[in-house]
Here is the input.
Amino acid sequence: MDPGPQRWYARTTLPVAEWVVRHRWIARLAVAQAVGVAMLAGSLGLGRPVAAQVLLVIGVPALLSLPAALPPRVRTMLATGSLALGASVLVPLTGQGETFAWLLLALTVSALYQDWVIVPTVLVVTGAHFTLIELGPSGLDPFDLVPLLATVLAGAVHHRSWRLAEVEARTDPLTGLANRRRLREAADRLLRRGGPASLLFLDLDGFKAVNDSRGHAFGDALLVEVAARLRACVRDGDLVVRLGGDEFAVLVPGDPVHAEDVARRVRVDMAVPVQLTGRAVRVTASIGVARTSGTAGRRSGADLLRDADVAMYQAKAAGRNRVVVCDEGMAEAVLDRAALAEDLLAALAAGDQLAVHHQPVVTLPAGVTAGYEALVRWQHPVRGPVPPLDFVPLAEETGAVLALGRWVLRQATRDAAAGLGGEVGPSKVAVNVSSRQLADDGFVDDVCEALRDSGLPADRLVLEVTETSLVEDLDSVCERLQELRALGVRIAIDDFGTGWSSLSYLRRLPVDIVKIDRSFITDLGRTPAATALVATIVELARGLSLDVVAEGVERTDQRDELARLGCAFAQGWLFGRPVPREPVRRAPASLTSG
Ligand code: C2E
Ligand code: CA
Ligand code: CA
Here is the structure.
């Protein structure tokens, strides 16, 4: 396979741990061979000084290869040298040409290093031996060249198979491009040398759909074509890589303008439809670029790849088929999110960083508190308070929202059972439910358990679900909502008006309450459209016997307008901010039992 224009000087195909194991055995073998050959010299009556000399010359390199102080490459050469030397001296020691066969064994054992250095090492040793012994005073017999020739040929064959293994371990079998491993090594090497470089991370847009609809053979052919186009877009010295699936990368050494050129050429080339099995397919790619320049933090190839990956995701998020360059802040933001996600898990385990605050929901026009909405709060030990919009969506991505939601549900029902505004008896409480929770098979059980453990009557609990979570899998979600309503729990549609559903859709949903999104309330009385929309929702809800809650009421004119339109409930800073439950007279222990 074509190793590409990039020169490749590999260390070894062996993973470090495997090298350590093999080296331990090979080095021991070399020591044993040195001792054996020295004993042989002694037993052949060559005298102690000769035996000692043999032991020294063969044994010392083997011993030197043992301690970890020297670099692995040097230790490989020492052990190999000792093995080859021990084998070569057998002929002059014994005077028997047959013993030369032992050298082939030495070469075979050294080949376990899977390292190109063993070939020159063995050749140097046997060459030196040949020069010293065979070209000695006795003169040259042409048959004496046979062992040397055999060693050279065996070495060449080994070197060839080693090269093939090296290339294969660093090549993507489908496209023949370099693979992830080769990229990492090449990028690390570039960074070590301190040379500027850029990495392009390409992900094909919509490849999965093509693969699914037209079959894998078609998908493979498309990837091969894309690989060929990428190769045509780069200069000598750039490394084109298939990372896996429909992900590619190009490592571009040198000034960032080269990388910009490559990105531009790739986009132009990709724009030409691919002709496959008689049909034209249009391929686009989202490209993320990371650079080594001006980034103290990007020390390894892995960092560079991660940052390019981050930028690629931004390119996807921004609408695909575009190039985004990773800047310092971008990578940091992603790392920060990952750290926050981890901290949230810790917070859930610790228990004392999270709290539930309650915001009153009042009747209109009287302004009497009718219930509360439970809103989660996170006091991070280092960052301070983290807004729910920063961690709830994150928890949804990671799945932590299941544990978080369960915790909020238990806390809110417990608080409500104890009374929220200092009044006696259980309060009404609305708890936000994420779509992940709603899709979870254990959710209804969680609700039952929270009600049972807190002692809160089911008709005092409202579950708020967003419009979008209903749209996702309407049938199964409706079924679940029906189950909850059968318990006596009421269902509210949160942020109504921001989702995809039409107003008439409301009729089909198993809900009891509509919460009009704050964005409509903000413009109420200011734009005719907002007023008309609120009026329509209120009217429609009345027709369907649903309660309506207006969210985010901050001004008296909004309140008055809502009252005029016949909206029965409102919530907002005008009536009260979310606050922790006031400590009440009753002992909490008696409320949490059961
Ligand atoms: P949401 O469910 O729409 O909650 C209402 C948000 O509006 C709350 O923000 C509340 O503090 C804020 N708000 C209330 N009145 C006013 C007002 O007059 N003016 C303004 N500007 N804002 C007002 P918060 O607490 O930051 O929560 C934001 C979102 O985070 C919530 O939106 C909800 O989607 C989510 N969230 C909060 N707690 C939970 C929870 O326990 N579980 C889940 N799944 N989501 C939660
Ligand atoms: Ca809500
Ligand atoms: Ca809302």
Summary: The CA atoms of residues 182 and 411 lie 52 Å apart. The chain has three domains: 3-169, 180-328, 358-375+403-570. The two ends are 71 Å apart (CA to CA). Confidence is low (pLDDT under 50) at residues 1-10, 585-594.
